[in-house]
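Below is how a single chain appears once it has passed through the pipeline. First comes the sequence as given, then the structure the pipeline wrote out for it. We keep one example in the README because the format questions we get most often are answered faster by looking than by reading.
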Amino acid sequence: MAIATSLNQPFTQSGVGLHSGLETQVNVLPAEPGSGRYFVRVDLRDRPTIPASIEAVKSTVLSTELAIGETSVRTVEHLLASLLALGITDARIEINGPEVPLLDGSAAPWVEAIRGHQPAPPVQFPVSEATLTEPIWIADKDAFVAAIPAPQLRFTYGIEFDLAEIGQQWHSWQPDRESFSTTVAPARTFGLAHQIETLRAQGLIKGGSLDNALVCGPEGWLNPPLRFANEPARHKLLDLVGDLSLLGVPPVAHYLAFKASHHLHVQLARKIAQPI
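Resulting structure:
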């Protein structure tokens, strides 16, 4: 198992949830060794606890939502990816509402806060002693996500859209060679202009804006500049890391995805978690 690591001090972030549009505050605190990462809904009377585990996944519609019984917390992926990538295996995450704030649409604000409250010396992406012996593939038409046996941990993500400004793009990241903080975390969530009204009519993206998401239309990006030429692909890779964090520390493998989704990410994680 990877060495358990917690924060040395708590920190707080506040902001609007992407889908709910509600302002929430998150306090991330040190936790007991071996307790894992877990959420506590402090706005509710009995302060229910929701583990950041694959068993707690309730929904994967445009974000990952965790629940225990009727109590849930949504859009957990950016915060969880940041905690995992910076080696925080144990964390108590107190939240006073149903959705983690989107902040600027990336994981960079979470990373900055975590880095300021890490034990010294800081621990980077923890390496599991578990490895895969056979590849695992989950596919839906031409979209897929896979975990392939490999000697080092690697994540590779490809996307493809009809809009010329996005097109087909890829990004590959190896934690032991490149910093999550500078190459993955700054990539922001993105959306397509022609889908906005439909999604809002479905009660989604109520808190989305040009301040916390990149938006692309037929004429190009509505709110440039991009932080990376392939920022959308990097953001999807960020989401994948966050969803795989629900395994605790994912086994060493090459995680490969193309045109995938939170739903496929979680299916892969569930398949990995199944006892052999």
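The CA atoms of residues 2 and 102 lie 29 Å apart.

See the next section for the split statistics.
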